[in-house]
């Protein structure tokens, strides 16, 4: 997103993809890498910085509603549900309370 800092873009994505409004921490929690299958059959490696967002509001109507099935679950359950090893590790770190210091907001 042009003219947006990465953490600001993450907060916008949270709204558009999940109907979650909140403030994202400035420092990324980590990096999730994965393979993206393209329409032409090719595969492109992708890397996405992950940001912690403190939720202040949720909505049932949002831009990408219907593309995913949102659910509020524990970090342990979330780690069980995702396939990406790096993302699993980030979620487990949250469970173990290895979060970023509050001063990095």
The CATH superfamily turns out to be Nucleoside Triphosphate Pyrophosphohydrolase
The portion of residues assigned to helices is 25-40%
pLDDT < 50 stretches: none
Distance between the termini: 20 Å
Structural class: alpha+beta
Sketch the major β-sheet: 2 strands, antiparallel
Radius of gyration, in angstroms, nearest whole number: 15 Å
Q: How many helix segments?
A: 3
Strand and helix order: HEEEEHH
How many independent structural domains? 1
Compact description:
With 105 residues, the protein is α+β, with helices and mostly antiparallel strands. It has helices at 6-18, 75-81, 85-95, and strands spanning 20-24, 30-37, 43-50, 53-58.
Describe it for me?
With 105 residues, this protein is of the alpha+beta class. The chain has a single domain, classed as Nucleoside Triphosphate Pyrophosphohydrolase (Alpha-Beta Complex). Helices cover 30% and strands 26% of the residues. It is built from three helices and four strands. The strands form two sheets. The chain has a two-stranded antiparallel sheet. Strands 2-3 form a two-stranded antiparallel sheet. α2 packs antiparallel against α3. The two termini are 20 Å apart.
Features:
single chain, 105 residues, alpha+beta, Nucleoside Triphosphate Pyrophosphohydrolase, two-stranded antiparallel ribbon, 3 helices, 4 strands, 30% helix
What order do the helices and strands come in, and which of them pair?
Blueprint: H1 6-18, E1 20-24, E2 30-37, E3 43-50, E4 53-58, H2 75-81, H3 85-95
Antiparallel strand pairs: 1-4, 2-3
Helix pairs in contact: 2-3
């Amino acid at each position: 997103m042009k003219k947006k800092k990465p953490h600001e873009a993450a907060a916008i994505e949270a709204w558009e993809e999940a109907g979650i409004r909140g403030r994202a921490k400035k420092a990324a929690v980590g990096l999730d890498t994965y393979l993206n299958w393209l329409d032409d059959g090719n595969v492109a490696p992708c890397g996405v910085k992950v940001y912690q967002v403190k939720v202040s509001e949720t909505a049932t109507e949002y831009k990408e509603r219907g593309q995913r099935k949102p659910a509020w679950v524990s970090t342990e359950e979330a780690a069980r549900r995702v396939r990406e090893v790096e993302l699993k590790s980030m979620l487990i770190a949250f469970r173990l309370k290895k979060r970023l210091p509050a001063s990095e907001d």
